[in-house]
Design a protein that fits this description.
The protein folds into two domains: 123 residues, Nucleic acid-binding proteins (OB fold (Dihydrolipoamide Acetyltransferase, E2P), Beta Barrel); 257 residues, Bira Bifunctional Protein, Domain 2 (BirA Bifunctional Protein, domain 2), CATH 3.30.930. Helices cover 36% and strands 24% of the residues. It is built from 16 helices and 18 strands. Strands 6-10-11-18-17-16-15-14 form an eight-stranded mixed beta sheet, sandwiched between helices. A five-stranded mixed β-barrel has the order 1-2-3-5-4. A three-stranded antiparallel beta sheet has the order 7-9-8, with no helix packed on it. 31% of the residues are buried.
């Protein structure tokens, strides 16, 4: 850091300390005069800014009661203008000494930007045509003891924005809009699922066995039971138990936890929806996925064509369908349908410059080819189908190609948005695959599944033919709000603590 920057930081710190001191002195004066804002317990709000701004003709000349945060102040002698921010937006306040009296007007001029106030007044338009409220009375509801950051200076730093999301929401209206859209997207998803006859359920977050996905879990400890427990990595095995129990169509929207890396696409805790439907397969899940996402976009945004980071994405069904083998042939020029052995697959991988760890088999190498050469090219919505059995331990095999499974992943903008199966319902096959996962885990693969004996017992009671799918809610919100990072759509993303 240069001397000049260092000196600037010192000046800013001195200025901040002075502001904090002055604001606390103002609070003390208020408290000593019997006007402690922190003793106010409620305020009756009759309207919000959007009511007035969107329906001015209905409100002109009428009295309203608003509450919100002071975002600007401009004093002109015996009158002042101020911007009030509430949940919906901003509206201008016009405050005159003749309307509220000299004592109250002087007290109003002492208010700080960031203070929360309640105001009553009459709706009108200024000579410049700005919709405003002529204030007849006000009350200080909460004193802001710290200054708000300047929009053009203090809240462009993404680290500060993510750590102090409350300031981000106050200062940056587009951020508030993103999270309002997130809530509407999730509501639209629930509406779609409920209309299709699905039942929303809740399953445990604390698991004795972390199953349902290949991921490294967070480990915690239960004192009374004297045992390790795991934050769930997926609700799959519980939800399929409910299908065994006869609920037939279930879904859950909730937090998952995976002890893995962090990036613009990954956060250790994230929101996912998993759903299961009896008597259908992965083709049924494809139809559901494209209808769900396209209809949610239409309901929330009014269109099925969205722009993500400068690229138009057309969500109108039907979407492209490719097998993984077809995708690798298209983007890598290698035809795995003609490769007959693990040795031949390893040789082709080495020729293409892929780094192989351990002694991977053909199916694992096919997946490596897909991730290296194909995935980034899948910009428009594309279902990649028929995954190798080696990387799909909970999926039904294809009857005519038993080395492959009835599984697909959905890709948009080169990213995975969903994962779906024709669910494996053969308990004997399932136990063998669990045992294979256990062997991988014992060999050092911390993401491999553990044995879940109770789930195998559930399957032995009979799981009907079932389609299941998981959809990443955060990534869907990123797409529909044109947000480049997962942290932009999580109110409180995981952050490393700052050094004090």
């Amino acid at each position: 850091m240069s001397d000049s920057n260092g000196n600037n930081n010192i000046v800013e710190e001195l200025d901040l300390n002075e502001i904090l001191k002055v604001r606390r002195e103002k609070l003390k004066e208020l408290q000593e005069s019997g006007a402690d804002p922190f003793q106010v317990v409620k305020y009756d709000v009759t309207h919000h800014t959007s009511d007035i701004l969107e329906n001015f003709e209905d409100y002109e000349g009428k009295d309203v009661s608003l509450a919100g945060r002071i975002m600007s102040k401009r004093s002109m002698g015996k009158s002042s203008f101020s911007d009030l921010l509430d949940r919906d937006g901003r509206i201008q306040l016009y405050v005159r000494i003749n309307d509220i009296g000299e004592k109250e007007y002087e007290a109003f001029k002492k208010l700080d930007i960031g203070d929360l106030i309640g105001v009553k007044g009459t709706v009108f338009k200024t000579r410049t045509g700005e919709i405003s409220v002529r204030v007849s009375q006000y009350i200080l509801l909460s004193k802001s003891l710290r200054p708000l950051p300047e929009k053009w200076h203090g809240l462009k730093d993404t680290d500060i924005r993510y750590r102090q999301r409350y300031l981000d929401l106050i200062v940056n209206p587009e951020v508030k809009k993103t999270f309002i859209l997130r809530s509407r997207i999730i509501s639209a998803i629930r509406k779609f699922m409920d209309n299709r006859g699905f039942l929303e359920v809740e399953t445990p977050i604390l698991n004795t066995i972390p199953g349902g996905a290949a991921a490294r879990p967070f480990v915690t400890y239960h004192n009374t039971l004297d045992m390790n427990m795991y934050l769930r990595i997926a609700p799959e095995l519980y939800l399929k138990r409910l299908i065994v129990g006869g609920l037939e169509r279930v879904y859950e929207i909730g937090r998952m936890f995976r002890n893995e890396g962090m990036s613009v696409k990954h956060n250790p805790e994230f929101t996912m929806m998993e759903l299961y439907q009896a008597y259908t397969d992965y083709h049924g899940m494809m139809e559901l996925a494209e209808q769900l996402i396209s209809q949610v976009a239409q309901e929330v945004l009014g269109t099925m064509k969205v722009t993500y980071q400068g690229t138009e994405i057309d969500l109108t069904p039907p979407w492209t369908r490719l097998t993984m083998t077809e995708a690798v042939l298209k983007y890598a020029g290698v035809d795995f349908s003609k490769i007959t052995s693990d040795e031949e697959a390893r040789k082709v991988a080495q020729e293409k410059g892929l780094k192989l760890e351990g002694n991977p088999v053909k199916g694992e190498i096919l997946n490596l080819f897909f991730e290296e050469f194909a995935e980034d090219n899948l910009i428009q919505p594309t279902f990649i189908m028929d995954y190798p059995v080696e990387i799909s331990p909970l999926t039904k095999r294809k009857a005519d190609q038993p080395e492959l499974t009835e599984r697909f992943e959905l890709f948009i903008t080169g990213r995975e948005f969903g994962n779906a199966y024709s669910e494996l319902n053969d308990p004997i096959d399932q136990k063998e695959r669990f045992l294979d996962q256990v062997r991988k885990r014992e060999a050092g693969d911390e993401e491999a599944n553990m044995m879940d004996e109770d789930f195998v017992i559930a399957l032995e009671h009979g799981l009907p033919p079932t389609g299941g799918m998981g959809i990443g809610i955060d990534r869907l919100v990123m797409l529909l709000t044109d947000s480049p990072s997962i942290r932009d759509v999580l109110l409180f993303p995981t952050m490393k603590p700052k050094d004090n």
